16S rRNA (Cytosine967-C5)-methyltransferase
Amino acid sequence: MRFHHNLVQATVDALHNIFNDGKYADQAIQKILKRDTRWGSRDRGFIAETTYDIVRYKRLYASIANVNEPFKQEDLWRLTSVWIVLKGYDLPAWDEYYNTPVRRIRGKLDEVRKNRKMRESIPDWMDEMGVKELGSLWDQEITALNKQASVVLRANSLKTDVASLKEKLVGEEVMTTTDERFPDALILNERANVFRTKLFTDGLFEVQDAGSQLIASYLDPKPGERIMDACAGAGGKTLHLAAMMENKGQIIATDIYQSKLNELKRRTRRAGVHNIETRLLESTKTIKKLAGKMDGLLIDAPCSGLGVLRRNPDAKWKLQPEFIDKIKATQQEILQSYSRVVKSGGTMVYATCSIFPSENEVQVDTFLKSEAGADFELEDSQTLYAHRDGFDGFFMARMKKK
Ligand SMILES: C[S@@+](CC[C@H](N)C(=O)[O-])C[C@H]1O[C@@H](n2cnc3c(N)ncnc32)[C@H](O)[C@@H]1O
């Protein structure tokens, strides 16, 4: 592999912004990629993937490179040298890499890889929590969560179907694979910037992980029904619900952030969806008004996000155990309060992108045993694991109201 100094410098700068300035990895990378319009897709791919890889393995690489935070420029260059050596490439003859101890780097990897916290590059507290929550599954799961995420599209059934979208993508030189477990999904064979295609701007697809695509189907909304998507965010699942409902009926999409709902509205227009109404949750009034009126409720709850570490590797370094405790309290509050919108005979799905039982089964169980949950019955629940199912980790539980 031939390395270009300006691309590695861009990677070093992105890492500086992420590690030293606390910027989110995706935003820092987007900003750096705007630096030079002459960079082609390979150059951009190199910067993005190398940066993500070093963020993912920060603890491991920093230990091998023998550098500590806050990282100086030369420390960040050393992290890139460790990345190059461990990938099995030859180091370019640049000043920054002068005297790099290549054999020592390889030897140190063999030494530290026996320790899971080092090998998988995770904070101590996260490893302890993972073992407590998942027991022996944690080892395989965290290894799988450190893999690079695949890019998955969801064909927008309001405008196309999987087979014709697949064919149209070939015209854009984007090759994809289908998977019978995820009927609307197309999985890219190689990463590509699909957002630049006209197919995307025309609303023929959304980028949405395969696991996430199961959640709207799990609620099974029917055309003409009234559905509430309580934690709609920017609407990944709301748009899917709308497509399943063939634009008929009504979806009330709520969130506590107007900015996210604005983004949802923008996506709605592109997707050709017109049965979504957004409402900002400012007080309990909105929920009270909707009490007993909904055929279906989706609670895509805020969570630790540990199931989607493939997509957000910097969460390993930004998450704190105190935040997880706080978010668990919010999850139960949301279940207790929003469940009242479901009418008799209606369905509620509680979902998270976490693989920890304390955010999932335990929350559902606590709810069902509480007064608010007394009228609900658990129909089914399932967890998608990255190590077993191959995509992001998700949990979903479906409850029926008597
Ligand atoms: C997992 S994300 C939702 C992702 C979204 N459903 C999608 O598919 O793109 C959880 C969302 O819950 C919102 N949220 C946090 N606390 C909330 C609350 N008390 N009530 C409603 N939404 C809340 C967050 O702003 C966030 O957008």
